[in-house]
Amino acid sequence: MSTARARLTARTAGPDYRVDLDDGAGHTWHADEPTALGGGDTAPTPDHLLLSALGACTAITLRMYAARKQWPLESVEVELDLDPDGKPAAGADITRTIHLRGPLDAEQRERLLQIANACPIHRLLTGEVRVASTLGD
C-alpha cells in the first residue's frame, strides 16, 4: 500500500496530445495542448493544471482557516499568471492575486495572506522538489 500524499495516473493514446488523468478514487479529468502546438485544445494545458492546483489550494486553505476562526470570509477568488512578463532567464514566476470578500478587518486580511503563503501547494512549489523517474513495463 502506498503512503503517497497524492497519486494519479496519466495516460495518452493515439496521435494527439490529449492525456486522461485518473486519481483512482473515481475522479477523471484531462489535459491537452492548444492546436497551435499540435494538440486538440480539448482540455486545460499542463501549465493551467499546475496553476489550478495552487489556486484551489489557496482558496480551500483560506476558507478552512477562516471557518475555524469563525471569521466572516464570504468568498475567495484567486487570479494566477505563470511568467506574466515572459519566460525569465532562469526559473519561473507565478503571480497570485487573492480577492477576499466579506467584512474582514485589516488584521484578519493580513493573517489570511500569511496563511495563503503557507498552503500546501505553495510550500511544495517554493520548496525543494525531487522527481524520481523510472521506466515501467
Question: Please, could you describe this protein's structure?
Answer:
This protein has 137 residues and is of the alpha+beta class. The protein has helices at residues 46-69, 106-116, 120-126; strands spanning 9-11, 19-22, 28-31, 75-82, 94-101. The chain has a three-stranded antiparallel sheet with strand order 1-2-3, with no helix packed on it. A two-stranded antiparallel sheet has the order 4-5. The longest helix has 24 residues, at 46-69.
Strand segment tally = 5
The spatial strand order of the largest sheet comes to: 1-2-3
Provide the succession of SSEs: EEEHEEHH
User: Low-confidence spans: pLDDT under 50, at least 5 residues?
Assistant: none
The mean pLDDT is 95
Q: Give the overall shape.
A: globular
SS-based class = alpha+beta
How big is the Rg?
Answer: 18 Å
How much of the sequence is in beta strands?
Answer: 15-25%
Q: Alpha-carbon distance between the termini?
A: 19 Å
Biggest sheet overview: 3 strands, antiparallel
Helical percent range?
25-40%
How many helical stretches?
A: 3
